[in-house]
Write a structure and sequence with these properties.
By secondary structure, the chain is mainly alpha-helical. The protein has helices spanning 2-9, 13-20, 24-38, 41-50. The chain has one domain. The longest helix is centred in the middle third of the chain and has 15 residues, at 24-38. One of its GO terms (molecular function) is DNA binding.
Length: 57
């Protein structure tokens, strides 16, 4: 969920990998999985603007 929040905030894949202390490939795989579930990268971007994703603390 934190990765999704970071993507929604506009962080790059490299930034997310550094923050999450994981491999960049893992971030790309997660992003690919989300795109597949939500119907593509453009649709994922549109959903990001329509819905606010609350930060998890």
């Amino acid at each position: 969920m934190k990765t999704l929040c970071l993507l929604a905030e506009g962080h790059s894949s490299q930034d997310i990998a550094r923050i999450m202390a994981c491999d960049t490939r893992s971030v790309y795989r997660f992003q690919y999985s989300l795109c597949k579930k939500f119907g593509g990268l453009n649709r994922l971007r549109n959903l990001r603007f329509r819905h606010t994703i609350p930060a998890l603390d």
